[in-house]
Amino acid sequence: MNDQKELFRTGLKDSVAIVAGFIPACFTFGLVGKGLGLGSLEVFLLSALVFAGASQFIGIKMLAAGAAAPVILLLTLIINLRYLFISLSFGGQLNRNISYLARTWIGFSLTEEVYAVSMLTREKANPKSVNEKSNQPLELPYLLGLQIPPYVANLLATASGITLASYIPAFYLPALNTSLYALLIALVVPQLKGSLRNMAICISAAGSSWLLHPLLGNSSILVAMIIGMAVGSLFRVRVQAEKGVSL
Question: What is the largest CA-CA distance in the chain?
C-alpha cells in the first residue's frame, strides 16, 4: 500500500510540467471555440471527450464552418492516427495485471507529453532496485498520478477560456500556446544527449516532415513518424549486430 501511494505521489510530481503546458493551450481552446460562435457546452464537451490537442482545434473550426459530422470524424481519425504508434509502444510498457477498465482510462488520457514523461522517468514508477528499473513495467498508481492532473487541468482551463472569451483580445492567442511547444522541446532534448540513435530518429523525422509538408500537408506528420521508426529500427539492428547478437 505504501509503495502504491509513493508511486501515485511520484506521478503527481511528474505531471506538474505537463499541467503547466496544458493550461495555456486548453485556455486558448476555450477562447477560440467561443470566438468562433460555438456554444459553451459544445466547446467544453469537445475538450472533455476528444482530449487530443490539434484535432480539437480543427474540430471546432469545422463545426463553426458547418462541416458534416462524418467529415469531421474522418479528419479527426486521420489526425489522431499518431496515437496508434504511441499506444503500440506504450502498451508494451504497462504491467500486465492492469485491468481492462484501467487500460481504457490510460488509453483515453494518453498524450504525447504523458508518453514522453513516463519514458523519461520510468525508473520512478517502480520501487525496485536500480539494476532492475529499466526492465520494470509502468504501474497503475504512477499512471493515475501522471494522467489525472493534466486531464483535470484541461477541463478547468477550457472552462476558464470559455468564461473569459469576451475579455481576452484575439491577438494574444498565439502567445498562449508557446508554453506547450516549449514543454515538448524540453522533453525531447534530454533524449538526444549521448544517443546517436535518438538523434538520427529526431533528424530524420523532423527533416522528412519539413520536406514533405508542402506535398502532404498535415499527413506529413504520419509519414515522418514512420520514417523515424524505420530509421530507429535500422539503427538498433546495426547496434545489435555490432554486439554479436543474433537477429
Answer: 65
